[in-house]
Amino acid sequence: MKILLLKCGSGLKKGVITDFNSQTVYPPLGLLYIAAVLENNGHQVEILDLFMEDLSSEQFTKTIASADAIGISVYMDNYRDVATISKIIKETEPTIPIILGGPHCIITKHRALNDIPQADISVISEGEQTIIEIVKYIQGKQKLSDIHGILYKEKNTIKTGKPLRIIKDLDTLPVPARHLVEKYDYGNFPWGFKYRKKFTSIITSRGCPFSCRFCARYGNTIQGYAYRQRSAENVVKEIQEIDQCYNSIMFVDDNFLADIRRAHKIFDMLLETGIDSDLMIMGARVDTINKELYTKMKKAGVKLIGYGIESGNQDVLDYYNKKITLQQIRNAVNLAQKSGFKTFGTFIFGAPIETTKHIENTIKFAYSLKLDVALFGVLFYAMGSDLWKEAVQNDVISKDEYIVVANSQRNLGNFTLEELYSYVRKANRSYYLRPTYIATQLSRAILNGDINVLLNGMKFITDLKKKNVDRSTS
Questions:
Q1: Do residues 211 and 346 share a domain?
Q2: In this predicted structure, what is the pLDDT of residue 48?
């Protein structure tokens, strides 16, 4: 069978299927895992990343006509776009099965098939094992009612398959089918750094052992969805394989360094075998720093490390249940900078206990850290998070609202939407337009002989002057 897998953009406009706001910077790892499983079972797979393409209606129609089934990844913020695409698909090919998967399906359960009425099946768990069973159903070899971890439609009624299953041993998963997205140029980050091409990402664990109150983690929705890691040997084997094809590799785990012993082993093995790629760690906690480990990371080729900092106020960090301190943040960023890494940090405005003074403290704290990249955004109450559940229980928001910005109009904070986004714009602009920041980046660019960093940094600053930058973090 031929399976078409879609990562959706922003729907149909003027005869073009595309995303009109921005391009994604990461490969769709979830779809690449599904594709690898399908290929290993003898099926033909095509992936379309509609964030990265401009397809005419005619081109899109031709593509879907060649498929036997279509799978679409759905997120909390793009389900309306998926509904639009699904409608187009069914109008063109009424009998083609549409299979949904991803965070929106897992977190909202039955609602996903109501939100996207043209879809036929929704996968409400990890999909690598389930997709093979679904294909057998399409081939007439299995009943939907016997498939684990799905919801499906039968005569306009949503029914449930067998109980979902958790993949306990992540080493059993195949290497993502990255060859299917070779045509796309990922890694074009909006900030100033230009990484070595080609770029890809890797994930070495699933879940998170922590419980930040704003996080819509799967563990809140799927019983038994524990934090699981791939073995160091399995991770290193994949890195060695893709090192031959890619120049920059980003770890996109929720917390790649959660297990310090495993991290040491990974980098020990990388140093023994040797790789040429630049490595980046997007998800790290400030309480997992280790000087010896950072030294190994630097030798192995790590260039950047990112932290979810969130606030410059201890009471706000405690409110979020971050279980970190301001001093731990300072120590982590300082060690990363001394180790020679570029540093990245995210910050959130809008906690219900926050005042203007809190926001001012966060901005000043960000200044003091001297991060290479600092991104400020607003707090969202996202379905599946502890904050969302509490707000629903207190009748502050409806259980039918998936994402709500914390704001005073909704009794979720002390600031209006306009005030929150004004603070975000001010923080993002002021951070990068400081003379000390510009001088530091200029000095580093000259010292490292990296003119691309300087040129891209100047472009980023110019863009900040031209438009409002509203960036959310999670």
A1: yes
A2: 94
